[in-house]
Amino acid sequence: MRTPRFCPQCGGSTLQRGLPPGDTHERLICMGCGYIHYENPKVITGCIIEQEGKYLLCQRAIAPQAGTWVLPAGFMENGETTEQAALREVWEESGVRAEILSPYSIFSVPKINEVYIIFRAIALEITGQYGPETATCRFFAPEDIPWDSIYYPAIRQILERYICERQAGVYGIYVGNDDTGMVHFIH
Amino acid sequence: MRTPRFCPQCGGSTLQRGLPPGDTHERLICMGCGYIHYENPKVITGCIIEQEGKYLLCQRAIAPQAGTWVLPAGFMENGETTEQAALREVWEESGVRAEILSPYSIFSVPKINEVYIIFRAIALEITGQYGPETATCRFFAPEDIPWDSIYYPAIRQILERYICERQAGVYGIYVGNDDTGMVHFIH
């Protein structure tokens, strides 16, 4: 959320940065009622869906960056598991009913406070019906992927890495951030 | 955060649940300024630190549930990667400087809107100095772990699962929730 200007608990307007007792991080604190405002990273969940060596991408119909391509992915909501959230996003953005195979990435983007939890999945049903956020969606062979029109750098990096591994025939878990990504092969 | 009673942007007190245009979930919306309140799950990061077959647990010094035992873990903060957050929590709660080996769990607890991202790690330095949240910390052999005094069910489940795998000599990624947990072995 945007930085609060008023206390969401008492409506007061005297919010100040300070270190709550016993805390390790400064927070916005209401001088009126003592409310402490915690801000935490958000989780984005989605899937890499492969079919005969091709990968499902969705073209954004809405701002920001309408016309760019993304993996089907979006913010995890309260009350969901990461897997439910990933499959819901796939359904909403691509009209594909999918099944999760395994986790693929835990990828942090600290400068925008996001964590990308991306699963490998297979398509069970492709309905061709999707929500208003998507202009169209398509399966792309690696050489046809519009790399320069992939919206999020994190998504591009995760997908590139995945395709390398797929070609090598060995999958790991991709953990990292914009600066350094590392594939953990689990033994 | 607790449900707002006042709009954090305009201070108004007329917040109502409704479906914003194009959204798939109901949100709390300010009837005054149009502010939309999004709530998302929080990430808890931490580590399973093993040394000669023993596991590091911390005894809580503070409410809730002072006296219970936990893995060193806590809420991920803005501006961090999951790995940085996990190592910071280990440091604060156990005074151990650790190094991450690999991710171990992506475990959801949807009824309290939390996701536990737990890594395998090794201790590089054990200082014996820890923050005020911890009464003491110790390495436990599996048969000595105070299972009935582990605070969070999710932590108990993740650690139990890990010890089984360690005994089998094969590690996976533990993905699931309170009802169903599944170890994904990545090939």
Automatic annotation (TrEMBL), chains A, B:
SUPFAM superfamilies reported for this sequence: Nudix
Keyword set, alphabetical order: Hydrolase, Magnesium
Molecular-function GO term, any one: hydrolase activity
Residue ranges occupied by any Nudix hydrolase domain in the UniProt entry: 40-162
Keyword rRNA processing part of the UniProt annotation: no
Pfam annotation, one family: NUDIX
Organism from which the protein derives: Halopseudomonas phragmitis
CDD domains recorded: NUDIX_Hydrolase (cd04511)
Cofactor annotation: Mg(2+)
Family: Belongs to the Nudix hydrolase family.
Protein name as annotated: NUDIX hydrolase
Keyword Magnesium in annotation: yes
